[in-house]
Amino acid sequence: MRTKRLLLVGLDWVRPKDSPMSLATVNIAASCTDVCDVQTFTFNIANGEPDFELLPRDHFDVIGIGAYVWADKYMNLALKSLWSLYQNATILIVGPQVTYANRGNFLSAVYPIADGFLRGHGECAMRQFMKGEDKV
Prior knowledge:
Layout: E1 5-12, H1 23-32, E2 37-44, E3 62-66, H2 72-85, E4 90-94, H3 96-99, H4 106-110, E5 116-117, H5 122-130
């Protein structure tokens, strides 16, 4: 059986004193490395609008992107770019804006391109999904 491939995309606000990758992305990647191949890519939105053409052109089965208030203005642009680049991948949104959003159709109305939303602690939710234990 082929190992699934996961790309974690960060739209992070990185200051000079910060790590170049968010703790959330690091934790999700670390929790999934024994159940799938994981690659990460972080855009520093403190530098302005992300250039999604920089994303890797490899095949991925699942794309995970975090939804945070500081990156909200770029989310639908990011989702359109991810869908265009990875049409056969499942695009999932994780993060506080998913976990704390009202249940129902709110998220799918705001982010219509996403294939699903993972609520709860990102590392646990993504690991369960990649293991096939959780559906979106």
